[in-house]
Amino acid sequence: MGALPWLLLLLLLRAAEGYSGDDVDAEEVVGVLQESISLPVEIPADEEVENIIWSSSASLAVVIPGREGQPTKIVLTNPRYQRRVSLVGPNYSLRISNLSWEDSGLYYAQVNLRTSQASTMQRYSLRVYRRLSEPHVSVNFEMAAEESCNLSLACSVEEAGQDVTYSWISQEDCRDTVHEGSALSASWRPGDSVPSYTCRATNPVSTIYSQPIPARSFCADPHFPEKTSTYSCLLAKGLLLLLLFAILGAGLWCVRAQRGCQAPRTRKLERNGLRLRRKEQPSPSLV
Question: What range(s) does the Ig-like domain occupy (predicted)?
Fold first, then answer.
């Protein structure tokens, strides 16, 4: 056990004296705040690993594969990752749990190979994001000349962080139109179909939508009939259902009518047969 600290020091010095990996493209890795992420390690075929030295802005951990049935050891060299680091899979991929904003940045894995006595450097660029909450929408409107209504909508997300994109989805006449940006200006005239507007916020780990906002909520005019796209869709569906019920009712009526026509004819034939039988019976003789 006394030789272990010296071994770790030697490995760290070897990593520092080796190449920095600046000529290696970093693999983009996206993580979610307070969740886990795995940094995969690629090991060349037919190679045996001597050790893996993990580092970030400072040293992180050293992985020492077990020999002759012994378990693999992972020795932390950075207390900030205490109880948050583990190994995943046979290739000694590093798993970091309970991610924080401070975990974002570059990570290096120096894989020292025993078979070829060579080293490979693998680099990762970790970005941590928060899952977005429901967008907040603010609406301003004014009744302009010629009885038109002007709307100004703005969308935002609390504690959104970086790399958040906004777009507006307007639904009119059962069609969706996308407008990029967090702000949207629209105009509506009474008597026209009234669209509804939905804000969509997206970042690399989540996509969230606001509640639909119908323009009639702010631009209603009692002197003009309102015909929203939603109303048109519902009306079309209602008419289709009524048509189906009418066809079904007509079919049932035809079936009952045919049965009704056949029943009197059957009863008539039965009466005629009864009369014939009566005529065929001999009249009683008088003694």
Answer: 135-210
